[in-house]
Design a protein that fits this description.
single chain, 372 residues, mainly beta, nine-stranded antiparallel β-sheet, five-stranded antiparallel β-sheet, globular, binds alpha-D-galactopyranose
């Protein structure tokens, strides 16, 4: 009898173990995330991969609201900044997790000339235009559909930006496929087409904190960039391309974010610079690696883009309280926005962001997660 009981227990334990080890099936679910004042329903898509990693995205701004990634013990933790409800996103925030367009970063004085015609955009950041204007792609409602993925699960977001929206020419059709792969990668594939010559520079503005709390100064960063684009005091590139070697800008070897941040002279102090990636943006290539020593989490970024805006949350000042009641103070998150250089349209020597009818804008950026 005792033997039988023991055998029974052993079988039960084996069944539990088998259940733990059996690969889960990746899933994606759609739920309601609330409504805008005009009644428009906002959807929340929850993607879970076969390893249990979770990515949540809403149709408002195609915002990544949560990203749960394992640490070295296999414990999941949310590594992006954001809120736990729609009202907080609607109340205003510095682009947490959002899609950015039509043109990411700044356009000097909100002006540019294309094919001999001058276009005037909103000056929504001091004298300059920032992140697509007053109502950029971070504040529009995207159409979403679950689409098949080769490896994992995917949601496709679509938006038609009408001719003249925020002052930009051309009807622009944008698609972004967010894929959570079973290799713990979050991949975003962008496309855009237009019916008139226009400018396009898309990115995602997630703020990461691989420890899930506290400041990010101890995160160790490597950037595949020997050069950067210096800026004036309104954060517009001067047009020079400078070597990072021998300066606090140098992350060609792994360096804690905070190791030389005090040597920077901008106000509020911190990194907010476009790095010129060594790959030249010609093909999908490794752009950055970030290690968080306490949790062991590692994030690698691969992109097809020529630039990476490294921003250390310098404008976070403790006035916003995010998920889990965390008060977002200075340097509580960092962004690595893969895109073309700021103010490219006013710098003919920078890689072009002009899109013409018949051409297809394409960009792919992958965030790959692992442990030390
Ligand atoms: C980008 C810019 C920063 C800042 C943030 C949003 O990363 O480079 O200067 O405007 O967006 O607060």
């Amino acid at each position: 009898m005792i033997i039988l009981l023991a055998a029974g227990l052993a079988l039960a334990n084996a069944a539990v173990a088998a259940e733990k080890e059996a690969p889960m099936k990746a899933t994606v679910t759609k739920t309601s995330y609330g409504k805008l004042a005009d009644g428009t329903e906002i959807e929340l898509y929850t993607m879970t991969n076969a390893k249990g990693m979770v990515c949540k995205v809403i149709t408002y701004g195609a915002i990544i609201t949560e990203l749960h990634v394992p640490d070295r013990q296999g414990r999941l933790g949310d590594v992006v900044l954001g809120f736990d409800r729609l009202e907080k996103y609607l109340a205003g925030h510095p682009y947490f997790g959002a899609a950015i367009g039509r043109v990411a970063n700044r356009i000097a004085k909100g002006r540019f000339t294309l094919d001999g015609r001058e276009y005037i955009l909103a000056q929504n950041n001091g004298p300059n235009h920032l992140h697509g204007g007053l109502k950029g792609f971070d504040k529009v409602v995207w159409k979403a559909e679950i689409v098949p993925a080769k490896d994992g699960v995917a949601v496709k977001f679509t938006y038609l930006s009408p001719d003249g929206e925020e002052g930009y020419p051309g009807n622009l059709t944008v698609t972004m496929i967010y894929t959570l792969t079973d290799k713990n990668e979050l991949r975003i594939d962008y496309t855009a087409t237009t019916d008139k010559a226009t400018i396009v520079n898309l990115t995602n503005h997630s703020y990461f904190n691989l420890a899930g709390e506290g400041d990010i100064l101890g995160h160790i960063v490597t950037l595949k960039a020997d050069r950067f684009t210096p800026v004036d005091d309104t954060l517009i590139p001067t047009g020079e391309i400078k070597k990072v070697k021998g300066t606090p800008m140098d992350f060609t070897k792994p360096m804690p974010i905070g190791s030389r941040i005090d040597q920077l002279t901008n106000d509020p102090r911190g990194y907010d610079h476009n790095y010129v990636l060594n790959s030249g943006g010609k093909k999908l290539a490794l752009a950055a690696r970030v290690e968080e020593p306490k949790t062991g989490r590692v994030m690698e970024i691969l992109t097809t883009e020529p630039g990476l805006q490294f921003y250390t949350g310098n404008f976070l000042d403790g006035t916003l309280t995010g998920k889990y009641g965390i008060v977002y103070k200075k340097h509580y998150g960092f962004c690595m926005e893969c895109d073309h250089f700021p103010d490219s349209i006013n710098h003919p020597k920078f890689p072009s962001i002009v899109l013409r009818p018949g051409q297809i804008y394409k960009q792919t950026t992958i965030h790959r997660f692992g442990v030390l």
